[in-house]
Amino acid sequence: MLVLGIESSCDETGLALYDSRRGLLAHALHSQIAMHRDYGGVVPELASRDHIRRALPLLEQVLQQAGVARTSIDAIAFTQGPGLAGALLVGASIANALGLALGKPVIGIHHLEGHLLSPLLAQTPPPFPFVALLVSGGHTQLMRVADVGDYQTLGETLDDAAGEAFDKTAKLLGLNYPGGPEVSRLAEFGTPGAVELPRPMLHSGDLDFSFSGLKTAVLTHLSRIGSNACEQAKADLARGFVDAAVDVLVAKSVAALKRTGMKRLVVAGGVGANRQLREALCAAAAKRGFDVYYPDLALCTDNGAMIALAGALRLQRNPAAANTSYAFTVKPRWDLSAINDPGQQPA
Ligand code: KG4
Ligand code: ZN
């Protein structure tokens, strides 16, 4: 089955072709980061307009890359939510228009399901079941993943997402948007332990997170050292922030593995690209005897490949999940545990 995936939930337009026998045939991405940078964050209206401009040229690109004709597409998967309503509508309407024109089924995919299944595209994919740590700009969640369509939320953030905390800290430090990679780079020059920040909810006894207090701690420290602080002081603060955030993410992931009795951790979402988080998880895995799986670095942040894959896996297990009426909605807010699919057949 050849599935076209369309991702347009935020500031990346991603298209991809995934074949259930041959794997990922092609994927192409346009990032709007440069366009939004001047505003310090994503401007929803600009995002939607840009998705309209980019989607069809990217479709041509993936068809060419894969060397297949449009008519060979068997199904179309698109991100139905969560995300920016206007941006989601662009992907949804293009997917359904193509489906109608080609006479092929269409399936709406949960963006986070795409992220948590994305390590299945890697050279060494994780077998089910596993615990997934989803760390993106909008979400921070620990999930128990028994199979495709069988998800249970173990814990989640009560306020800011991990990526949001990185982005806000970057802004406070005068770094560019999106701040995650920039804060991570600056932290490399910081002295570990020079700035000790709180580890929110580290000992809360549950698997929930909270990051807004950490951002406030950064602000308080910054107002103490002054906005003209030297680069080393800023690097030390970045280091303090990253170490605190990483400590909590690692400790809660380890606790989730312990609670579920599992030995496999999948890390997905933009913050999964973070170098310090990867190093700390690698050390914890060696010490405690579990395995960590990541998507390829290029597929950590938003992309169409994860949506095409999720669409193919869902349709394989439950062909009735497809929409052939081409009436569509988007779901800007959508709880991941609401998408468990009781109609699916085991693989
Ligand atoms: O998954 P993603 O591309 O989009 C959402 O679904 O939100 O994640 C984007 C988030 C941003 O907050 C960005 O700052 C963060 O991931 N991010 C990172 C790194 N690369 C991206 N955070 C920390 N370190 C990184 N290397
Ligand atoms: Zn994402």
UniProtKB/TrEMBL annotation:
Keywords linked to the UniProt accession:
Acyltransferase, Cytoplasm, Iron, Metal-binding, Transferase, tRNA processing
Query: What Pfam families does the record point to?
Result: TsaD
Which residues are recorded as binding substrate? 134-138, 167, 180, 274
Output the GO biological process annotations, alphabetical, semicolon-separated: tRNA threonylcarbamoyladenosine modification
* Annotated function: Required for the formation of a threonylcarbamoyl group on adenosine at position 37 (t(6)A37) in tRNAs that read codons beginning with adenine. Is involved in the transfer of the threonylcarbamoyl moiety of threonylcarbamoyl-AMP (TC-AMP) to the N6 group of A37, together with TsaE and TsaB. TsaD likely plays a direct catalytic role in this reaction.
In terms of HAMAP family, this protein maps to: TsaD
Protein name, per record: tRNA N6-adenosine threonylcarbamoyltransferase
Q: What does UniProt list as this organism's lineage? A: Bacteria, Pseudomonadati, Pseudomonadota, Betaproteobacteria, Burkholderiales
